[in-house]
Amino acid sequence: MDLTHRPRRLRQDGVRGLVSETSLEPTDFIAPVFVDATTDERVPIESMPGHERVPIDEAVARVEEVLETGVEAVMLFGIPESKDPEGTRAWVEDGVVQEATRRVTAETDAYVITDVCLCEYTTHGHCGPLEEELRGEDHEHGPACDHDPTLTVDNDAALESLARTAVSHAEAGADMVAPSSMMDGMVGAIREGLDDEGYEHVPIMSYAAKYESAFYGPFRDAADGAPSFGDRRHYQMDPANSREALQEVRLDAEEGADVMMVKPALPYLDIVSAVRREFDHPVAAYNVSGEYAMLHAAAEKGWLDLEEVARESLLSIKRAGADLILTYFAEDVASEL
Ligand code: PBG
């Protein structure tokens, strides 16, 4: 055959590494860590094999395990000792994330990012206080069945709580805050709150394009944050939309976000890639709990090689344009690199 072009030439050992376009580094990853104020023992998370909720006393030890793999950043999530309709335990000085942050920043070199949301702290599990019409109802069991399902979170009332929460995390020593509630104006409110209190240097990683996804299922078990009624489709994004994601990112850029996150990752690589093309900000992608759980489930059946598919997944997220990857595979993949 008289072939001029033979792309296989560059796939041979010796040269394939030289021409490889993408690589993974442990410093690309952020490892999520769940700190639970309701327990004094580590509790395995069934739907996320290898992950646990750890008591506050174990937070430092847990973060040290992450650091040993070469991963340098963690994202702290908190499970509070008690909940109320407003989620007040989210911003108290002795809250679970605040306490864990103080200890981890004092005792380790980890870069500590905190998730700023209210769903783990409210009795009804929504990401902010409810609309006035719904207040005072039985939040554990949800509002009356004839309630208007478009009514959930009171956006503007949530902003103040989110700003207070972010400030309390910064006071505890958080290196970066990551608002995930998808309230309109959340980045601006948090930026203003931080700046007013002298935390101008604390960056915001916004969950800018966060979709209303069924891939969050295992996380909601892990963090005990499932809504007790309704769903999050009136604040998280519709999976059908992509131009809207660019609009969300644009608004967050105007409000002062430093890093733009797309979430979930694998089913939304087109969004990661579009944000990468349209904006100059660092792009983060959240390889969520369901993406982790499904690979584990298939591997457990012997249908997939876990190590291979985990690495290939993270590589594809990087190739699509993510600079940072939040992933439950952080430690496993980093230790193999
Ligand atoms: C809180 C929050 C969620 C996740 C991260 N922050 C859950 C949700 O919005 O329901 C999901 C993370 C995961 O699935 O791994 N708002």
UniProtKB/TrEMBL annotation:
Which positions does UniProt annotate for Mg(2+) binding?
Answer: E248
Q: Where does 5-aminolevulinate 2 bind?
A: S289, Y328
- GO molecular function terms here? porphobilinogen synthase activity; zinc ion binding
* EC number(s) stated in the UniProt entry for this protein: 4.2.1.24
Q: How does it assemble?
A: Homooctamer.
Q: Which family does it belong to?
A: Belongs to the ALAD family.
Q: What is the protein name stated in its UniProt record?
A: Delta-aminolevulinic acid dehydratase
